[in-house]
């Protein structure tokens, strides 16, 4: 919590390979020089099936659902061997980038570069401070993310109750600030953000439906989520090579077209 998901979000193109009508036409024989003898009827010729170029078959393809396994991490995980992570079947990672209006995770830049070098798709997430203006938090997050390219996962926001502020705001005020954050992030990155709602936060505020136009990252440790999701956080105690101690493990399913 590279290149599967840039994948992860696009349709596939079916390539149709064939020959043009000119390629299939019989070749005109070379002409002999004029003869001084009386003309004779040309001898009949036959064409072997091998002499005619056959159209190449159209590749047969089918759509399949592909499961991608990923982790989310921060400075709490300490040093990470991203090559070992990649070799353990992990294809993407979400890394904590920022929190509130000033905090930057000290491991973000290093983990991001190393994970990308190991072939993982990487995205950054922001831990939302419930008592700080959403636009100010978005500006801080965007400044740390920098420019995104096609290999980056979309930015994400982490909405939780823990550690935010002593007196959380009312639902209407909080929802307005979260929307301001999401709109600012999308305007700057030109990528639609992903929303992670910790279960206790959702129980308190009930904003999943109100933010339903955004892709959802759903934590469900006891089985498949009971609402629509783009990322499913399956466990917070996973074991992955290259990471000491427990780590969050997530799934993304994509539809991809492959050759039969």
From TrEMBL:
Keywords: Glycosidase, Hydrolase. SUPFAM superfamilies: (Trans)glycosidases. Pfam families: Glyco_hydro_25. Belongs to the glycosyl hydrolase 25 family. SMART domains: Glyco_25. InterPro entries: GH, Glyco_hydro_25, Glyco_hydro_fam25_subgr. Residues 21-67 are annotated as: Disordered. Residues 51-67 have a biased composition (Basic and acidic residues). Residues 33-49 have a biased composition (Low complexity). It comes from the Bacteria. Transmembrane segments: none annotated. This is GH25 family lysozyme. The keyword Secreted does not apply.
